[in-house]
């Protein structure tokens, strides 16, 4: 098993340099940096980065990484690490998407916080930002982004338009946004080889996948104050889309003779998603308030698929597989929070949440071969899953001194998950989730943070229903016995500021994971399948390093270098072999290097991004899969503001066109013994994530 940890020579050298340079230039920090280890960034700070939206600004904050939040249970737990005017927006749309709808001209400042200084809105965050908006005037603020991109090896041009408008009307602050992607056509080309266990070539094939996709997203947000003590906000979003694809492959024997031809068409149904939400806050006094939050979302999707296989050699008759699938899912949440200060240095939060989630999934599979029509619909293909969940919570934020802050809290949740249709079952769960978060500002330059909490992962209801990937010949059986993964998480961070804008952060973490969610073998009367399930207990231990280096001292005025890296080791017992192994779908290491340089005299800014990561494994009953890129990801850009008030940016992404290599090692009958290895399938993909692309983007305000 591979256990290689590396950040790259240049990354490691720069991180070490950051530690050496850390003690110098502390005097260049502003006075706002020291008290409480908080820092404010005025709008002028971001001027050299030519920001168009609030997202552009947040991504340039030294030492901060924008996080859209994880799939965790509860509204606040999945909120990410950004607030807007001290509040978490009543939406589950990614916070980065919400920030992209706010014009940079609306930002007054962005405040960086360590620990929880904003109550339940930032629960469990060791580092977060609060985007503070200017008071809205009646004059509209409008922004636009127009982009055209071309993907290798596709010859098509893909347009994208994003329009936003913020204005005040009838005492309501409005923000409207439209994102239009009328066409996105991408082509993926595959080179595949199949060998036996000894390495002898058995088969080669050439394949392509031509995708065709469109999407429109219209969103609106309003906020107003009906009285001096009341604040009301509401939001909505609708997203129609459609997705289709065509795949084609030809397989050859070792001598180059054609064996078979596979051709398929996937006609996606017209998908539709909507979300509406709102909140009302009543402030009883400067130290006491009550807030209600509501959210409802729903989406529908589906497709009609036809896969045809023509056998050129041998007596096997041609085969046509027809797949009809569809799904509808929804979520409804109500939340109430009471905040007050029982003492000058304490902020107490009490509240509760009720939620209802559901998924209706349908799947029918029919195979036509040799004049026969066979029903090949797998078990648990047509089912409905529902969850009713409730929680109560209490959280206390205690500022012991200007240098030491503590946040402690406890959430208790109970839920009932029921399933009907092909599988009938009902189960009850109760979880207690304590949390302890401490921040110590040891000096003007050094800060230490400690987080200990119990986290419960959000279940993906689609994993309760069977799914099929006919292109790869994979069936994942729906598992009605799936349980949410639980994690005891401990995390310690050291942050050092230097050279004014410089930040170095070192994080060590250890997770004790209960009911690790992974692939498990599922044995049924109709056959043996793989499917999502729980393995037992496991561990995750690692380190993350992050640094932001200003390059002015090297003569690169305004230049900035950002380096992020992580390395971890995971361990769990494999259900097939009984041996210890790493978690599926998690790389052991990853790192990135981001360099940006303004040239004010030429109205230019340019930069480069370098990213690399370890291969990602997947363990199935009779298959071991590894997926990764043969080359790193390298992006280049150049941007000009010479034509006022436009910002014109040209980008070349993944200039090396790194191949996405997937190796599948098949075992017969299973992986219990390495000697059971039967065949090895290696496939290089060009044009998937990692494809080279060229884009020109014009953005501005009007």
Number of helices: 3
Radius of gyration: 27 Å
Secondary structure: number of strands: 37
Q: Give the DSSP E fraction (strand runs of 2 or more residues).
A: over 45%
Oligomerization state: single chain
CA distance, first residue to last residue? 56 Å
Mean pLDDT: 88
> Which geometry do the CA atoms define?
globular
Question: What is the helix content?
Answer: under 10%
- Unreliable spans are 1-37
Describe the structure.
There is one protein chain. The strands form 4 sheets. The chain has a 29-stranded antiparallel sheet that branches. A 4-stranded mixed sheet has the order 1-3-4-2, with no helix packed on it. The chain has helices at 9-21, 54-58, 95-99; strands at residues 39-42, 82-84, 107-114, 127-133, 141-151, 157-169, 172-196, 201-227, 230-252, 258-268, 271-285, 288-311, 319-343, 346-369, 372-375, 383-399, 404-421, 425-441, 446-456, 467-469, 474-476, 486-498, 502-514, 517-524, 527-534, 538-550, 560-573, 580-581, 589-599, 604-613, 616-620, 623-629, 633-640, 647-653, 660-667, 677-686, 693-701. Residues 1-37 have low confidence and may be disordered. The protein is mainly beta and 702 residues long. The chain is globular and about 80 Å long.
């Amino acid at each position: 098993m591979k256990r290689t940890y590396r950040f790259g020579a240049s990354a490691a050298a720069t991180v070490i340099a950051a530690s050496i340079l850390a003690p110098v230039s502390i005097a260049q920090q502003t006075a706002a940096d020291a008290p409480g280890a908080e820092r404010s960034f005025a709008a002028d700070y971001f001027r050299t980065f030519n920001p168009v939206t609030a997202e552009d600004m947040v991504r340039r904050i030294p030492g901060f990484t924008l996080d859209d939040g994880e799939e965790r249970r509860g509204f606040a737990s999945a909120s990410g690490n950004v607030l807007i005017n001290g509040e978490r927006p009543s939406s589950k749309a990614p916070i980065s998407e919400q920030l992209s709808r706010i014009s940079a001209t609306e930002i007054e400042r962005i405040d960086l916080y360590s620990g929880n200084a904003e109550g339940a809105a930032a629960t469990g965050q060791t580092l977060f930002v609060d985007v503070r908006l200017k008071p809205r005037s009646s004059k509209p603020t409008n922004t636009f982004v127009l982009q055209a991109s071309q993907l290798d090896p596709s010859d098509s041009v893909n347009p994208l338009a994003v329009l936003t408008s913020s204005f005040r009307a009838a005492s309501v602050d409005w923000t409207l946004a439209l994102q239009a992607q009328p066409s996105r056509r991408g082509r993926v080309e595959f080179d595949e080889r199949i060998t036996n266990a000894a390495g002898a070539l058995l088969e080669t094939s050439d394949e392509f996948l031509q995708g065709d996709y469109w999407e429109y997203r219209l969103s609106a947000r309003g906020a107003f104050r009906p009285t001096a003590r009341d604040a009301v906000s509401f939001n909505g979003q609708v997203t129609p889309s459609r997705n289709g694809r065509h795949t084609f492959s030809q397989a050859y024997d070792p001598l180059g003779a054609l064996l078979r031809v596979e051709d398929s068409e996937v006609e996606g149904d017209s998908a539709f998603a909507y979300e509406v939400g709102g909140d009302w806050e009543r402030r009883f006094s400067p130290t006491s308030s009550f807030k209600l939050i509501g959210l409802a979302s729903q989406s529908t999707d589906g497709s009609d698929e036809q896969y045809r296989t023509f056998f050129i050699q041998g007596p096997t008759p041609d085969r046509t597989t027809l797949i009809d699938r569809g799904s509808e899912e929804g979520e409804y949440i109500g939340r109430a929070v009471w905040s007050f200060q029982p003492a000058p240095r304490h902020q107490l939060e009490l509240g509760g949440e009720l939620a209802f989630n559901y998924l209706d999934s349908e799947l029918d599979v029919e195979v036509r071969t040799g004049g026969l029509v066979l029903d090949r619909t797998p078990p648990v293909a047509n089912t409905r899953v529902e969850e009713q969940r409730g929680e109560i919570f209490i959280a206390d934020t205690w500022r012991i001194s200007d240098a030491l802050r503590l946040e402690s809290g406890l959430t208790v949740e109970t839920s009932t998950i029921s399933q009907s249709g092909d599988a009938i079952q009902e189960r009850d769960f109760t979880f207690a989730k304590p949390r302890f978060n401490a921040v110590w500002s040891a000096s003007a330059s050094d800060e230490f943070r400690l987080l200990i909490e119990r986290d419960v992962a959000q279940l993906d209801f689609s994993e309760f229903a069977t799914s099929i990937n006919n292109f790869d010949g994979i069936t994942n059986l729906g598992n009605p016995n799936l349980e949410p993964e639980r994690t005891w998480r401990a995390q310690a961070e050291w942050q050092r500021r230097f050279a004014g804008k410089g930040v170095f952060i070192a994080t060590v973490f250890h997770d004790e994971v209960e009911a690790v969610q992974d692939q498990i073998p599922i044995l049924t009367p109709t056959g043996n399948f793989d499917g999502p399930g729980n393995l037992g207990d496991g561990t995750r231990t690692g380190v993350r390093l992050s640094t932001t280096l200003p390059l002015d001292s090297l003569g690169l005025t305004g230049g900035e270098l950002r380096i992020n890296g992580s390395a971890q080791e995971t361990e769990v017992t494999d259900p097939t072999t009984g041996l210890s192994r790493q978690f599926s779908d998690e790389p052991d290491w990853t790192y990135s290097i981001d360099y940006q340089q303004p040239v004010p005299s030429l109205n230019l800014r340019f930069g480069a991004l370098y990213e690399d990561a370890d291969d990602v494994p997947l363990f199935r009953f009779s298959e071991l899969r590894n997926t990764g890129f043969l080359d790193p990801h390298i992006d280049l850009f150049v941007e000009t503001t010479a034509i006022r008030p436009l910002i014109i940016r040209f980008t070349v992404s993944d200039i090396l066109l790194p191949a996405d290599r997937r190796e599948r090692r098949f075992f017969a009958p299973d992986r219990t013994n390495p000697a059971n290895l039967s065949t090895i399938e290696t496939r290089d993909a060009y044009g998937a994530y990692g494809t080279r692309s060229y884009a020109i983007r014009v953005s501005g305000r009007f």
